[in-house]
Amino acid sequence: MLKFWKLATLAFALVFFMTACSSDKTDTKEDSYSETEHGEIVPSITILSSTPEANQTQYEAANMAAAEWRKLGIDVTVRPIEFNTMVDRVFNGEDHDFDVYTIGWSGRAERLDPDMFTYSILHSSNAGPGGNNSSGFVHAAFDELASAQRQEMDIDKRREMIFQTQEIIADEVPFVTTYVPMFVQAYNNERFTDVPLMVGEGIFSEWLPYYVKPLADDKVLRVGSTYDLNTLNPLDASTAYEWRILRLIYDKLVRVSLEGAPTPAAASGWDVIDDTTVDVFVREGMTFHDGNPVTAEDVKFSFDFQIEHNPGYFLAFIDPIESVEVVNDTTVRFNLKYPYAPFVNNTLAQIPIIPKHYWENVMEEQGISSPADFPNLDPIGSGPMTFNHWRRGEEISLSTNNDFYHNIEISGMIYRLYGQMEGIMAGLQRKDIDTLSDPMIPAHINQSRGIEHLNVTETGSIGFQFLGFNLRRVPFDNKEFRNALAHTIDFHTIVDAHLEGYGGLGGAGLNINDANQFWHNPNVTRPAFEPSKAREILEAAGYTWDSQGRLRLPAN
Amino acid sequence: MASYIARRIFQMLVSLFIVATLIFFLFRLMPGDPTAAMVDPSIPLEARQQLIAQYGLDQSLWVQYKVFLSDLVKLDFGNSFYYKRSVTDILGDKLAATLILMFAAMIFAYGFGIFGGAWMAWRRGSFLESTAITMALVFRSAPTFWVGIIFIYFFSVRLGWFPSSGMRSPGEEVNNMFQLFFSWDFVKHLILPAIVASLLFLATPLLIMRNTMLEVLGEDFIEMARAKGLKERVILYRHAARNALLPVVTAGALFVGSAIGGQVLLEYVFSWPGLGQEIVLSAQRHDYPLAQGSFIIMAAMVMVMNLVADILYAYLDPRISY
């Protein structure tokens, strides 16, 4: 026993001696270090991340990034905060009090047009409080392109501009996309077939009733969801979930196809006369669900009424309209204030056609000051589905509009509300519902694959989840620094480990991903996960490390 | 008695005023801005400011408080920020669903608890009694959502006896209030969540009943009844149980008061469109009017039920007078 203690003491002394020696060595090295001029210590960084409950993947991504940044000698803290508090601080805060944040943009159909993910989230005019440019990205050449593309009516020229903006963003790195969510869903293959999949929307897109084919005698398609609605009033609706139902009841002049191209809907076609004049031809023989015909007057009224009463949700889309004229029974002319490229893709494809006779006097009849206050409990549109009933918190029931100009094989749809995804999974398993509107979590995807009556579908998303930098602050005001950090995000691990493979890879400044085939620039090169490269970039940019390994800003 | 009730009602109003004030300021102390939850961040700034003005959130806290109180006196809880509908409407829809579920659970729990408790006291020390106590305590301490998930898995997904979620089958047509809650379809949906909830509540009446029964069974009048040669069942239920009911009634009245909050997790697991979930969401969304309304109603309900229990007590026990 004594022998052991002697040995241990000896070993301890040896280690102590060696450490002392090596620290001597560092001391001598420090001398040479002190000759190099150090700048300030890189300030401590706080990453405001999603809570693990709200978005586990983003929470993990933030922690992985923090671990890499610490290795670079930066003091980093990860602080999970609740979503509303995050939005409040990052988007609305007057003082822009944050360093790094994680959040995402969902890939709704109207965002297939590149304007939202280019102009709206990155143009310098949107960098103020309440604007969508939360990173405070300001870049003259980018601004010029972003403004020009939305006024370029020639689609090829516009595409070229969008491609250039993507190169600038990848080079400037105002944010790093951590991953691209994937829509994995399932449907009952015993009851339905030919389920269409739409980029960014998955199964429950506006095309679902157009193409889906019933196999059983009961032709009602039941869709499970966890998102409750507030209203079925098109002048009041302010969430994507409400529009997913409303666009089935109300028709639109144009619908964006499964591939993302504008296709005629209530319009039989359109003619771009010049940069600020567009003629739209109203399809003949259409009727509203109450039997009244859909006329050019109704179309004009729909736009005028919504412009006058200013529904916030579509503000950006209707703002460019100067006036709407009825040219003849089937032609409506739109005069624009300025050329607006997303006009057909967004404005015509989003604004619902509402019956004039129903809305015209609604304020006097109801004694309300705004049509947004009208409950609209029996919505009348001209879309593919007619309204049956809505039991709040339970379900919305729709029937097929048999007079619709497109043949629809199902006889109705039911939007069924569940408290949580677990309930939806049980519903699918028990055949209470046929499909779902939300993306599935990996555990349910694997479970669904083992269930014979379920087909699992995968659709890419045009939305993205990202790690945003506050460019108004040191050290993120430095482009090289951001570029270095772009090398520290382990995109593959995020997708493979945290999403079990059900997602797309992120990348520096990746705002328009390859799911949006037409607008995605495939030739942009982006930094790969390579922490040693980050160190090289920092060193080349004049960053130094002090004796304690802390990263210091370039001197001078 | 009348003056006692009047005094109690006055006290209730004072407590309600204090509760309302606390609730008003507590919600406004939470970090975050209600408009962030109401408005999509991609909506322009002007639209957001317009909303802030519309809801009076640009006014000083004191002005907001005065408006809140004067509306409250008129029993007007205002309009929900999130749903843009009157709070009374929203609570009305959901309150009925929650109360029906809670009452069904209560009937199961108290019906079974009272008879079971009496029986357990009678069979004190037997193997069956200790098993029953253990089971009641297991369900009391097991998380409801877990029991719920297990029940859904076995009785709904595996055996297919009951529906797995909601109040009605998809697409079920309902033409009036009666059909809404008095149809076979509704009852089928009610059974499983009500049983799970009652398993949680069961321990309280069961054990209270058992304990008071044990006391009562030692009383002289039971001895007397035995001496008269009455049947055991008659002694147990007609003589002993009636005297042991008092504390159970109190517990029951208080239970009704707290039932309005529902069982949030239970409603969540069974996708029951009740108030519980709504209350949690309204606090999360910073929907002040809805959150305030539901908490005030909850507080009022607990107070009213306390009063009812006190009055009932005087009625059931002649020794108590006010």
Secondary structure layout plus pairing:
The complex is a heterodimer of chains A (556) and B (322).
Chain A: H1 2-35, E1 45-49, H2 56-71, E2 76-80, H3 83-92, E3 100-105, H4 115-122, H5 140-149, H6 155-172, E4 175-188, E5 192-193, H7 208-211, E6 213-214, E7 220-225, H8 240-249, E8 254-256, E9 262-264, E10 267-274, E11 277-282, H9 296-308, H10 315-318, E12 321-328, E13 331-336, H11 344-350, H12 356-359, H13 362-366, E14 385-391, E15 395-400, E16 412-417, H14 421-429, E17 435-436, H15 442-449, E18 454-460, E19 464-469, H16 479-486, H17 491-498, E20 503-508, H18 531-540, E21 544-545, E22 551-552
Parallel strand pairs in A: 1-2, 1-3, 7-16, 7-17
Antiparallel strand pairs in A: 3-19, 4-18, 4-19, 4-20, 5-6, 8-9, 10-11, 11-13, 12-13, 14-15, 15-16, 21-22
Helix pairs in contact in A: 4-5, 5-6, 16-18
Chain B: H1 2-29, H2 34-38, H3 45-54, H4 61-73, H5 87-122, H6 127-141, H7 144-158, H8 177-181, H9 184-217, H10 220-228, H11 232-259, H12 264-269, H13 275-284, H14 288-316
Helix pairs in contact in B: 1-14, 5-9, 5-11, 5-14, 6-9, 7-9, 9-11, 10-11, 11-14, 13-14
What's the short story on this structure?
The complex is a heterodimer of chains A (556) and B (322). Chain A is α+β, with helices and mostly antiparallel strands and 556 residues long.
What does this structure look like?
The complex is a heterodimer of chains A (556) and B (322). With 556 residues, chain A is an alpha+beta fold. Chain A is 33% helix and 21% strand. In chain A, strands 1, 2, 3, 4, 18, 19 and 20 form a seven-stranded mixed β-sheet that branches. Chain A has a five-stranded mixed β-sheet with strand order 14-15-16-7-17. The termini of chain A are far apart. The model of chain A is unreliable at 20-32 (pLDDT under 50). With 322 residues, chain B is an all-alpha fold. The chains are: A alpha+beta (556), B mainly alpha (322). Chain B: Belongs to the binding-protein-dependent transport system permease family. Chain B: This is ABC transporter permease.
